[in-house]
Specification:
Strand order of the largest sheet: 2-3-4-5
Number of helices: 0
Strand content: over 45%
Radius of gyration: 18 Å
Structural class: mainly beta
Largest sheet: 4 strands, antiparallel
């Protein structure tokens, strides 16, 4: 038996519990691996409806994806507002951890802010509370770091009326990841949100779905791919609807995470099962972590399968 790996049991039907016995309240964020540990970043909602200034960014870490330690709030002295979707990347040029966050001084006056820390769990100091972007009013976003260390932000512009509302684009970041260069892709789609971006087999993938704020029925997942992060992109289908057009996993995407296994890297689709709490507490809504995504020879992704539980082989961290 290869002792470099261990098995993690993943289940999607019960609340995840931290090592102190508390339900993990960590939503619409990302899962990352830094320095041999997994870090789970998200928004803590508690007993609210999600639309209040009580939202707080939080972080948990684990060596095995099962035993989670809470590290508390991420941001130092956050400004008054409503906060969503924290995403973190490591900058190879500055050796800093970079947090991009979506916040609203007043709903829905969208800003993307940037904060820096010396360690993944923070605390993070805000260095740019209102990033200048090509899109006027940013909403949901995510980060991507290419193989050469170049950073990108993908986001939806929530300004505009009709067909132009919630337009999704990718922009290249400055070398320190604290600003946009304003170099951008074409508009990938409209009336969409909750993006994720990753690379596999030389292709840059972008996944997102229809606008579906806290919706219990879930959103679709549209797949786009390109040879370069700024495109041009082509659509490779939709992976969260069956032949009848019914949503397969009643969840909204939050991230795609690459995991190293004995058979090579795999990609997990992460999402929030909004409305799944049984105790009435929004912060106790479940998170859905898929089995590894399945790719076809042409680069397209097979449809999701609703899995209640599965196991993963991953690198040991001890």
């Amino acid at each position: 038996m290869d002792d470099r790996f261990q098995t993690a049991a993943i289940q999607n039907t019960r609340p995840r519990i931290d090592v102190d016995g508390n339900v993990i309240d960590c939503h619409d964020g990302c899962l990352r691996r830094f320095g041999g540990r997994f870090y789970w970043f998200g928004t803590r909602y508690g007993h609210t409806d999600g639309f209040t200034p009580a939202n707080v960014y939080t972080c948990y870490s684990s060596s095995d994806l099962m035993s989670w330690h809470q590290h508390g709030s991420l941001l130092i002295n956050p400004p008054p507002g409503v906060f969503y979707r924290p995403y973190v990347a490591f900058n190879p040029n500055t050796a800093k951890y970079v947090l991009w966050f979506n916040w609203y001084p007043k709903l829905w006056e969208g800003h993307l802010g940037v904060a820096l820390a010396d360690q993944p769990e923070g605390p993070y100091d805000i260095v740019n509370p209102n990033v200048r972007l090509a899109g006027a009013t940013p909403g949901d976003h995510n980060l991507f770091v290419d193989d050469d260390g170049t950073g990108y932000v993908i986001y939806t512009n929530i300004a505009g009326d009709g067909i132009d509302r919630h337009a999704m684009t990718v922009e290249k970041l400055s070398p320190d990841f604290t600003a946009s260069t304003l170099e951008r892709s074409e508009t990938l789609d409209r009336k969409v949100e909750a993006p994720a971006m990753f690379k596999r087999g030389g292709l840059c993938y972008v996944l997102f779905g229809n606008t579906c704020c806290f919706c219990p029925h879930g959103a679709d997942v549209r797949v786009f791919a390109a040879e370069k992060p700024l495109g041009p992109y082509r659509q490779l289908g939709e992976i969260n609807r069956d032949d009848a057009g019914t949503i397969i996993v009643p969840a909204q995407q939050t991230d795609v995470f690459q995991l190293q296994t004995p058979d090579g890297p795999v990609h997990l689709w992460l999402a929030d099962l909004w409305g799944s709490r049984i105790d009435g507490i929004k912060g106790h809504d479940l998170q859905y972590w898929s089995s590894p995504l399945r790719f076809e020879s042409d680069g397209s992704i097979r449809r999701l399968v609703f899995g209640k539980e599965h196991s993963l082989r991953l690198f040991c961290t001890v």
